[in-house]
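User: I'm curious what two different proteins look like when written out as structure tokens. Can you demonstrate?

Assistant: Sure. I'll show them one after the other, since each token string lines up with its own sequence. Here's the first protein:
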Amino acid sequence: MRSFSPDRRKFLKLSMAAAGSSLILGISWSCTQDTPSNTDNQSDNFSPNAWLRLDPDGSITVIVAESEMGQGPYTLMPMMVAEELEVEWDRIKVEHASLDPVYGYQLTGGSGSIRKGWSTLREAGAVAKELLLGAGALALSVPVIECTARLGKVVHNPSGREVAYNELTDIAAKQPIPGTAQLKEPNEFTIIGQPVPRLDVPEKINGKARFGIDTKLPGMLYATITHCPVFGGKPKSIDASEAKSIKGVKDVFPIDEGVVVVASDTWTAFKAKEVLSIDWEYGNKTRISTESIINQLKARPLEEAQTAWEEGDVETVLSGSNAAVTAEYIQPFQAHVPLEPMNCTAHFKGDGRLEVWAPTQSPSSAYDTAKAIVQSKIERGLKKVQKKLLGIHDDSIDVHTTLLGGGFGRRLKQDYVSEVVQVAQRYEQPVQLVWTREEDVQHDHYHPLTLHKMRGATDENGMLIAWEHIIHGLKVNASGAATLLYDIPNTRVLVQDIGAIVPWGPWRSVAPHYNIFAVEHFFDELARAGNNDPLELRLKLLRDHPRLSKVLEIAADKAKWEARPNGAISYGAAVLSEWGSNVAQIVELAETDNKYFQVKKVTCVIDCGIVINPDIVKQQMEGSIIFGLSAATKSKITINNGRVDQSNYHNYPILGIHETPEIEVIIVNNEEEPGGIGEPGVPPLAPALANAFLSATGKPIRELPINIESG
């Protein structure tokens, strides 16, 4: 056990429900300046803001502030509470948090859910347990030291008498916050580390789960939008006569960069959208193309680049080396294409309140977006002052966070929220806006195109002595490239960012995706130039990263790297250490009879510290590998005349079940702080595949996606 002292500035008071039958406990996240915790303004009264609720029926409801888009927070976060609270897993329920400031700024991304909640939610469970132990001792008229919390009950050890938690809520709510509480040590865990069933799965199977697109309200109208094909363009004139002649069409009108159709149902709106005649004002971006962007990146003066990392004297070593190697890699724009297209529902009520139902990765950002539309700058300023000085949350706008049918970073952008609020302002009824797949693909916020210029050198023994990596791109940074994992004496990493020429947004694994491809593939090029086995050289140069070395060694052993046959089978390896996790992947590439290559197997080893739920870790690694393999071999966004060429899955394909290789995931257990699992499995896949292709053909990959055709 590990003791900690609950801080009055960190822990919210216990509170009772209006009927006095539910015990609610809240503990605040660390809040930013713009999202202060209510803890500073708490009186001695109980507060309704909470992470944990014990209900009269014996169930325990955990409030989760993370969006559920398949990655598992509706299970992982409650597991941390349940572990310390000492309750049976089948008693746990989950609710999404409200927008009360006690929950901080709600945003799900960066593989941060577990890392953010690890201490907070365990402490919530531990403090609640201490309060219930005290209440149980009073109820049983025994010393608290003689009591134990076990399976949702307080048990008096000498007599065996017991009392259930739900019978103690009235007494527990009157107890003072304990001076100390105990957190379990990892060897005491009974829930954490176990493959307990996911709480969100049953309703997804039986059809009761409600994603954003499933929102249905009385009298609801349905809308869709067509955006200008060219980035930044706007409608100049609209001929909607044919569209309005379709039965069920209510209205057609412009907003921002698009034209909206409102109808009695979504399919009617979609049909009407197709017959609109719109004269667009394209603006000044019609000359933008993939080719022009690449040319701009190549021509940009190096003097404009920013130094992200420098050690030693790279230029002198490279200039004097007879064994210098150079390479350039290009990675394309990528779309997100989540299965559930962009959608949102909004309703302006008669009392002036706005309700929004959004499948969003950031309810707080959705709230801010809506507020910017419906409130004047003066109103927003006053509300902000009230929030900062008094801790008063503006509840005139309420965001209900639904389940998300995939996010991958796309739903951190709130353009679809902005659009539905603009539309709903015109009506007293609720309005649901749904984008078509074509709008989704052609008006995404894209993972950026990047150009990587690499230089390196080896000594007479093939050891790496110099490394230079210049990252060119739109809204790029050096994450995953600096600091370099490998022990190379002379290194330099530069970043040349030309800004968001096209709509940009975070994409699953963000900068490490493009940077780690360049780092890991160039490493293999240098290793082979120095006549070294790439895996052996990695292990030599990862001497300061024992956890990463260990996962690589395990992956090599599981994939039988040493015993790999010559000819028809080739192997490639790549590693990552980001988001508090360490991952190694080995791709097995087989040559087929028709001279194509096929990815036969991916071996993935992850060390993410303490594992909350091994099943979810495996699910995330498998999903990440499939996601990464799609981007590595199939998907690519290209731009011509200021518009996206692709429009749906037929020309922006994703990996099919029949194309998915065998995937083996091995988890390294230890007692380090938990790391992220949503993103670390993506970046190593493409370089591991490229390295296998290099091994098979002797040809490096200069541009993604990889055409794995022989020769």
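Here's a second, unrelated protein for contrast:
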Amino acid sequence: MSLDFLTVASLVSIVLHLVMLVLAFVRRGWHSRMARLWAVLMLVNLARVGGGMMLRGPWQGRFIEPFAVNWEEYGLFAAALLLLWLAALQYHMLPNQRQMLLFGAVLWPAGLLANFLPGASAGWIPLGRRLFDLRAVIFWFNLGGWVVFNVMTAQLLLRNYRQARFPTLRYRIFLWLYGFGIVFLGGLLRVLVPGAWYGLLVEALGMTLVFLAVAWPRLPQMGRLVRNVLNEGIWLGMQLVAYAGVYLLIVSLLGEYRYLAAAIMALAVMLVLNPVMRTVQGRVERWLFGEEQDVTEIVRQFGQSVSNVLDVDLLSKVLVELTAQVFDASRALIFLVELEVSPEGERTYHIRPGGRERNAAYVGRLPVDSPLASVWARERRAVIAAELEMLPRYYGVRESTRAWISRLGMDVFIPVHARDEWIGLIALGPKRSGASYYAEDIDLLHMLADQTAVVLQNARLVESLLRINSEFRNAYAAMEEAHERLTRIDRTKSDFISVTSHELRTPLTVLSGYVQMLQDEPELQRREEFRRLIQGIAEGAERLHEIVESMLDVTAIDLREFQVTRQIIKLEDVLRRVCRYHAPVFRERKQQLEFDPVIAELLPVLGDPEALRKAFYQLVNNAVKYTPDGGTITITGREIPAGDAAFPQGGVEILVRDTGIGIDPRYHELIFEKFYQIGDVELHSSGKTKFKGGGPGLGLAIVRGVVEAHGGKVWVESPGHDEETLPGSTFHVVLPRSE
């Protein structure tokens, strides 16, 4: 086998087909039907080209003559059938095309079997009394199948081109058609001019374009590719002409001094020729192809335009304007992305449009295990809408996600990352010109996304601050409204207390007078049942009198009208008076009172003895009510020196300690508010001194009012509330000394 043009072209074709065979599995995956079918097509072409080389070489004459002569046509028929199958697998096909595929899959092996008919080895087959040239029959059989299946492939591609929704998909089908046309032209050259080496190269070139359309997700711009090839060709031609001219000129001048001529030529090329030719090349390129976009300048201008934008609305507007200028995009959106975790632990990306776009249909949720989330969040790669239908890795994308992308009507999506966090998504609609987004466009969009990252992060922070500020203003307004409402309620309660207490005093005075008259009647006192009834009425009237007095005191405290008469008093006298009043209660409840003798040694204070009696009465009464039967109540005191951190002016501190149920630390302040009671009011007993007995909830409010009116302080200490362990409570009352 001699090394002629046909052999070289065959070797080049074999290498190209082997490369495309390997890349098909690399790009589409081993499990892709497209990759497997493409591999079969490549093997058929390799067998056709490689077999042709063998039939011209050492294997010549070793096959059945019609089979060997029509080897090329068998390969063309099979390749045309596989190309139709490949196009039908990638795009929608008609029912008659499916039937023709099945028919061709049966017809082609039948054509092979025809070589084994009687007489086929001689090239002739008998039909009746006549002999037919089997080589001609097989030639026209294969040629007819080749033409029919090529026409059907062209029909399928043209129909899908007209129906394609995405420009990227139209561009891919156009590349399919373009490459398919070149493949058909190469096959036609091989049929019309047997042994034409250029037919193999033309066919290999067309098959390369078809391979790009089948296996390459992001296609380069063919116009730019052609432009670069032509540009480099022009540059190479200019170099050859310039170098040859300079070399001939120097040699003609220097003659036999060739080495010197070579050195001078190298120096001239380095200093003069290359810069001049580059300038000329640039002018020729602009004259032939026009101005090309300067990527560096685009990125610089984009960065300047968005660098000071802190508003998502404005950023979205700027993005639309810039992309419309640079990419001729019909529309653009910028999305904000936030990772959310549901109560069930499901993690999803919440994708919502930024800016003034409020269309609820544009809001999407993407599970973190979605293939799209993997590409956008982890791989940081752009996705073209057409890729969702094309690449196997997206076959697992949920229908809800596909429906969301379909509603958006966008062609390309570019993720935006701030450090390791996916924070945004830029989406561009179709180009106004109807052109596709090429691989070069995607690279430029990634650069712009990097420029957008910091700006979008700042815009998100500003938006969050504005949202928080708005929520804070709303919450503050609601709080102000609630405070005003509570103030009105509190004022209403104070008015109610004031009116009620004053209105009750008159009938209570009358009731007390009649009770006193009944108690003074000897006839009634002699009868036990009447005496008991009168005593009950008297005790009730006294209890009601205490409540009315408490209500009046609280009203005076609220209105800042609570007046105290100051005189020097010993707290021991006030406390013993309170304890004597509660002595019957201590005996009834079997409670033990521990009165610390140190109280007698305390310095006197300046205060109102009656007001202080009311305050300590309420404290002791509170201790009695919340201490179980058999408990202990301790009253002790100490002097506070001047300069103390809690009470700098110095004073006297009285402590009322019990072994009761205690008070939850959360309520240590609330218990001093009027009407506040610990626990469920409905579960309280009605007795004044019974365990957890009820009351109007005014006692501790009076204590605080009286103590503060004297310039003192009151507070409670308790580890907590527990009716089993009985942690107890300690009330502290600090009053200033008389000195």
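A detail about the second structure: The chain has a mean pLDDT of 76.
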